[in-house]
Amino acid sequence: MPNSAGAAGWLWCSVCDNNSRNASALAGTAIPLRGPDHQEESTFPMTDKHPSAPVPAKTRQSHSGVIHVNEPHTENFTVVGNHLAQHSELSLLAIGLAVHIQSLPAGASAGIKALAGRFPEGEIRIAAALRELEEHGYLTRARERLHSGRVITRTTSYNRPRNATTPAAEPAVPVPAPPKASAPGRTPAVDLLTRLRTYDSRLLLSERDVQRLVPDVSAWFERGVGPTAVERALTSGLPQDPIRHPAAFLARRLRELLPPSLPVPPPPAARVRPARLQDCDGCDRPFRSPEPGQCRDCRMAGAA
Asked: Above 60 in pLDDT, residue 6?
């Protein structure tokens, strides 16, 4: 029994010792209420990551750049083509101004002064942007005169750029066509000489005589004399005596009464076109000038 008791006592002490050591180990790892001492600072450094910190959300796009969040519009929207929104030659002000004008209702004011009152940009910059849109076919500004005499500027906006306009061709000068022959192989001179017998039977000509007189009659036509005038010259004032040789009679009249050629008309004087109408960058009033800018009143006011 003593051995058993000694063994049991030893065993109990061993268990107690183990429990003591476990308790000491547990006591050493407990978190004190008043904060760690100098020995515990190395065990719990302040720079360790906290496992309870929120994990940053992962984005779907890993690349940089704009991310579009598009929602469909069902009312109060304007459709703008990428040919305008991404135009490579228009300035940013011109693109934005075009989008604003396209969103306006029909009949809304789109003059320089109205746009300058709506946006912080000045009248000069807005006028330059409007000229850009005109050059690229997104805008036209036509001057119209009302019944009262007032000149207004009518603005037309195009959601698709117009093609480059070509100058209208000058109308061709109408050339009077020569009288048509009544039958194949016949000329106006032949018809005229053949009809002379209807005025007077004494002017009856043979076919051979007609062919001989055709060059003389054609000379009258070349000098601007019409068939009616030639017939009058050949049939008026006929003698009362019989005409024995009508071909010789008519040939003498055609040569003696041949009128002179018409004088060559002088060339038309060069027409000086007035300068085109421009919208004043200062007061939006139309004025004539080869280049855009300001009218005389605005220049004088600026100089003063």
From this structure: no
